[in-house]
Structure formats: structure tokens, C-alpha cells
Inverse folding.
């Protein structure tokens, strides 16, 4: 059984994560432009992430949940991560997506397990978004994410950063 504070923390983290994703993609597109096949794929994923953020923004407002106080940090850090990975190259930008979506898939799965049948609206939203996040990971891998320079190191560092961001956003 999840408490109201646990569901509020879920929404806070999920909204922060979707905001961070939009900033990562903005950083990547600022470096890559819009013309390459990778940039077009990133633009499509960014559009979905923006839709996710709008829905979580609405749910937070309707439920009176306090958003994370770390939003200014996620704004800058997300854009910087996106720009840095794009500067390394398109495969590194895709490696960033693959790493983050791996963590988000795991994170959303844990949330669904915790929610059970207690909050059908939130659970359905998370299930829908999780499917799109998995699709993003598959797109990134198909676009050569695993061929990025130092992929295991890059992926591991980004995944760790994602887990830290989730933990911090839950409480702050």
C-alpha cells in the first residue's frame, strides 16, 4: 500500500525526470541541428518527452504536489549533458538516451510494482510513458548507441547520474 506522500514523491520525480529529458534533448539538438537522421529521431523523442512533462505538470497541479526544488539544477545539468554527448558525436548522444531510458524503465517498473491497483490514473500514465521510454531506448540502440566512444564508461556514468537525480528529486 502506497501512502499519499509516496505517490507525491513519485509524481515529483517523474515530472522532474521528464523536464530533465526535455533539457537533455534541447542540448543535443542545439549542437546537432535538425538535419541528421539522429537529430530527427531525437526531435521525435523530445516531442514525446514534452508531452509527458505536460501531463505530469497537470497531475502535480491537480494533486497539490510540490515539484522538486532542484528544477534549476536539472535545467542546466540536462542541457549540459545533452550538449556534451552531442559534441562527442551522434552515437554518444544516442548512448545518453539508451542509458537514461534503461534507468527510467527500471524506475517506472519499480513504481508500478509499488502502486499496484491503488492509483489507476497514475499507474496507467506510467505504463504508457514506460512503453515510449523503452521505444526510445530501442531507437537509440538501433542508431548505434553501443558504438559510442567508451560506451560502457559513458553509459555507466549517465546511469549513475540518473539514479542520483531520482533519489535527490524524491526528497528535495
Amino acid at each position: 500500500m502506497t501512502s499519499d506522500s509516496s505517490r507525491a514523491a513519485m509524481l515529483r520525480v517523474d515530472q522532474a525526470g521528464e523536464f530533465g529529458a526535455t533539457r537533455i534533448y534541447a542540448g543535443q539538438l542545439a549542437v546537432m541541428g535538425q538535419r541528421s537522421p539522429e537529430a530527427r529521431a531525437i526531435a521525435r523523442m523530445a516531442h514525446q518527452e514534452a508531452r509527458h512533462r505536460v501531463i505530469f505538470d497537470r497531475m502535480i497541479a491537480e494533486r497539490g504536489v510540490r515539484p522538486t526544488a532542484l528544477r534549476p539544477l536539472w535545467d542546466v545539468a540536462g542541457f549540459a549533458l545533452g550538449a556534451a554527448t552531442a559534441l562527442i558525436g551522434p552515437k554518444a548522444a544516442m548512448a545518453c538516451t539508451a542509458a537514461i531510458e534503461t534507468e527510467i524503465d527500471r524506475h517506472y517498473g519499480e513504481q508500478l510494482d509499488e502502486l499496484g491497483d491503488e492509483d489507476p490514473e497514475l499507474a496507467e500514465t506510467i505504463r504508457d510513458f514506460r512503453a515510449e521510454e523503452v521505444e526510445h531506448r530501442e531507437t537509440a540502440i538501433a542508431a548505434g548507441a553501443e558504438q559510442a566512444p567508451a560506451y560502457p564508461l559513458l553509459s555507466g556514468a549517465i546511469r549513475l547520474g540518473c539514479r542520483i537525480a531520482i533519489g535527490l528529486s524524491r526528497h528535495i
Observations:
- Residues 4-32 form the longest helix (29 residues).
- The mean pLDDT is 91.
